[in-house]
């Protein structure tokens, strides 16, 4: 195996923030009551307007900058709790209590963000006042007939690129998730094809045996070879797809939303098809998925603390760190608007 190190990378910059759609909440969690969240450090307030649509505004009253999220929603408009100015879902100022005569409410608007509800999640577009030329990512197989769909939100320590790399990284599974996926013994060689996608990158694992751990044995008791892809798609999607047999298919899609430079919200949608009744499948998949996510959360917490303590990253990579550097590059290019040529397909060998 080629273990030649790629050049060390040292960076103290924050992770690049790529424009696009980001998940902010589960649909059921957006209510008429205003709710504040952070998108890359920016406070945004979401609520349901008079038509019941979820909407998103900058969480800063245009009058004296009080947080609108501390106010309430009155007839579909958000009312600031300081002097009672009201704004509709588009950020238009609709009322200024006590003001006599004509008012130029239009000049006092609050920036609004495009907002959509799709597949159980609420998404916002990252730039205020922009009419996006795209729609939020469509999560494959979610809620399709024959698929059990499980959704879960978690707060992960670390920047988006670290959380995405962790979600798509095979070598850590034998250690962090020992016994659930793979063990660090009896490794077998397999081939990985790493290819560029339109706005993303994919690693396809060829010749992989069904993982020996608990998760694999429950879902594919017959064993054998499995098909496995890991994908990153700009700006925020990390996806793991397994076909364990003709009848067993898992697509775990996580939408990652940077809250601050060191915290990323993870919105997971796991779509599973298996020859097991849904009630049993749910009873198996959800606890295993939660255990995996909590183990990842713990190692990400330790990694993030280290990076902060040492004042930045100093990462050494080998070719079996298959997607991490590509994720950083894709984010940098998307954030700067300077997209380079597609990277060539690469094939490597790995012991898994
Ligand atoms: S600060 Fe919001 S109404 Fe005055
Ligand atoms: Fe993991």
Give a quick summary of the entry:
This protein is an alpha+beta fold. The chain is 18% helix and 36% strand.
Features:
single chain; 352 residues; alpha+beta; Rieske Iron-sulfur Protein; Naphthalene 1,2-dioxygenase Alpha Subunit, Chain A, domain 1; 2 domains; elongated
Characterise the protein shown here.
The chain starts with 8 loop residues before the first strand and ends with a strand. Helix 1 (160-167) packs antiparallel against helix 5. It has 5 helices and 21 strands. It is α+β, with helices and mostly antiparallel strands and 352 residues long. The strands form 5 sheets. Strands 13-19-18-17-16-15-14-21 form an 8-stranded antiparallel sheet, covered by helices on one side. The radius of gyration is 23 Å and the shape is elongated. The protein has helices at residues 160-167, 173-176, 214-219, 278-309, 324-336, and strands at 9-11, 21-26, 35-39, 42-48, 54-58, 72-74, 77-79, 86-87, 93-95, 112-113, 115-118, 121-125, 148-157, 189-197, 200-209, 225-233, 237-245, 248-260, 263-273, 313-315, 346-351. It has 2 domains: 21-125, Rieske Iron-sulfur Protein, CATH 2.102.10.10; 148-351, Naphthalene 1,2-dioxygenase Alpha Subunit, Chain A, domain 1, CATH 3.90.380. The structure holds FE2/S2 (inorganic) cluster and fe (ii) ion. Residues 166, 172-173, 176-177, 292, 296 line the site of fe (ii) ion. Fe (ii) ion (FE2) binds at residues 166, 172-173, 176-177, 292, 296.
């Amino acid at each position: 195996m080629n273990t030649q190190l790629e050049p060390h990378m040292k960076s103290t910059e924050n992770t690049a923030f790529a424009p696009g759609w980001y998940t902010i909440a589960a649909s059921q969690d957006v209510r008429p009551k205003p709710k504040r969240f952070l998108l890359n450090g920016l406070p945004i307030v979401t609520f349901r307007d008079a038509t019941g649509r979820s909407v998103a505004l900058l969480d800063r009253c245009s009058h004296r900058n009080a947080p609108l999220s501390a106010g309430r929603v009155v007839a579909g408009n958000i009312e600031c709790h300081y002097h009672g100015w009201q704004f509709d879902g588009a950020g238009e100022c609709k009322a200024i209590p006590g003001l006599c005569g004509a008012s130029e409410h239009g000049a006092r608007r609050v920036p609004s963000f495009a907002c959509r509800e799709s597949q159980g999640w609420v998404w916002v577009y990252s730039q205020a006042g922009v009419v996006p030329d795209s729609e939020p990512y469509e999560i494959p197989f979610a809620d399709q007939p024959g698929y059990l769909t499980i959704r879960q939100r978690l707060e992960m320590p670390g920047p988006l690129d670290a959380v995405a790399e962790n979600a798509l990284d095979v070598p850590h599974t034998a250690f962090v998730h020992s016994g659930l996926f793979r063990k660090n013994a009896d490794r077998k060689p397999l081939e990985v094809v790493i290819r560029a996608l339109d706005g993303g990158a994919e690693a396809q694992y060829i010749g992989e045996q069904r993982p020996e751990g608990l998760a694999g044995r429950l879902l594919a008791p017959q064993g054998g070879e499995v098909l496995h892809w890991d994908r990153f798609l700009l700006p925020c999607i990390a996806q793991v797809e397994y076909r364990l047999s003709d009848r067993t298919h898992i697509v775990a899609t996580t939408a990652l939303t940077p809250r601050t430079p060191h915290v990323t919200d993870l919105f997971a949608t796991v779509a599973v098809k298996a020859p097991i009744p849904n009630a049993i499948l749910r009873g198996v998949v959800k606890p295993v998925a939660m255990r995996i996510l909590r183990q990842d959360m713990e190692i990400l917490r330790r990694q993030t603390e280290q990076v902060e303590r040492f004042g930045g990253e100093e990462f050494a990579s080998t070719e079996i760190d298959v997607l991490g550097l590509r994720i950083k590059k894709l984010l940098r290019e998307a954030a700067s608007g300077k997209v380079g040529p597609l990277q060539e397909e690469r094939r490597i060998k790995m012991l898994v």
